[in-house]
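so my prof wants the structure for this chain in the tokens format not the other one, which i didnt know existed until like an hour ago. anyway here's the sequence
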Amino acid sequence: MVILTGETERQRLVLLHEIGADNFISKPISMNILIEKIAFTIKPQGKIGKLIENGKQLVSSEQYEEALKIVRQILNIKPNSAAGFLIMGDAYKGLGKKEKAVEAYETASNHATMYMEPLKKLAEFYEEEGDHENRLRYLEKLDRLSPLNVERKVDMGGIHVTLGNEDKAEILFDQAINQARKEAMSYIEEVSSKIGGIYEKHDPEKAVKYYRRALELKGDMLDKSDIKTFNLLGIALRRQGKWREAVDEYNKARTVSPEDENLLYNIALAYAEGKDMRKATEHLAKALELNPEFHMQDPVIAYNFGLIYTKARKTDDAKVFLEAALSLNPGFEKAQKLLDSL
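here's what i got, hopefully its the right format
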């Protein structure tokens, strides 16, 4: 399983890894790098990979002694193989050698701090033994590595109830509910935004309604992932000539992401549509302070810079941006025509 994603928080990547993701590819990405990463993820197994797979199959078929022989081969090749020690733990557990199983799982965990499987095995082992305190200890370690797992927080809270730690249980249950609510709201926001996108060109007023609903549903849980919705809402408002409302929405977004040059650029476009060129150029200048190459990402953006500076009667600045637009797209007729007029 390969996940293609925009920027996202590390904790969410860890959770996705925990539930089965084999690799992550962050956008934007070139086609060549995309192919390389996928090829790396699905490449044929080497010798040690085949031994690990063989060892797992032997454990599944309850051939524990044979699995231990495979483990010895794995550890001869890679003495600190966490996967090898994990198979060892499963084999010893199958043979009823509990202390050796725990020791193998602990060793697997020590050799791979981000490898959660040994900790899960230890938590499961102590659950079967009815040892609540040790099970809780390993669940807490897992929670530190992957804190967005709602079900685990509920399990931990349940153990605290059993142990009589009501205050600790309540804290964990509240965290679980808040995380579940955040995930649910994010999904509802995504659906509302999609509906807004359907209406965007056909009925901007309804698009605004659904974009606003998407943001309102998040309440006080707005974060950088909501910037796209704010931008879409601003564009829908500007299509109706409501540039002041668009500026208000963009400024709300800036409370979530104050260092976002794209928001400043969109605010500048809104002010330009309202014919307030002084404020438009002020916001373009702020965008360039954050990213001096911002206008160079697209010829249309560079042209818009040039157009706004032209209307603000800042001819020298306008020429620079129009020349940049033409360097990105030599056949850009509108940019050439405006530059010639200057």
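also thought this was worth mentioning. Strands lie at 2-5, 23-26.
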